[in-house]
Amino acid sequence: SPLKKRYMKRTFGALLTIIGILGIIWGAYAFLAGGDSVGNVSVSKFSAIVPFGIGLIFFFAGISLVRTTSDHR
């Protein structure tokens, strides 16, 4: 049904947004750690930019999906 599809899109958008926020936080923390290990993962400053960038993409994709999914019939 159309209503179910809308709720699925919004849920997926919210999930993308949350994953994006986590990626942004992890990338920023890894970048500020400056090449030390983060948890069990050794991260250089350059490679810390990758999860940050992917987090930004996921965040804005999720926000866009939530905003463009209308509440109207």
Automatic annotation (TrEMBL):
Keywords: Membrane, Transmembrane, Transmembrane helix. The chain crosses the membrane at residues 12-34, 46-66. It comes from the Bacteria. This is DUF3098 domain-containing protein. It comes from uncultured Adhaeribacter sp.
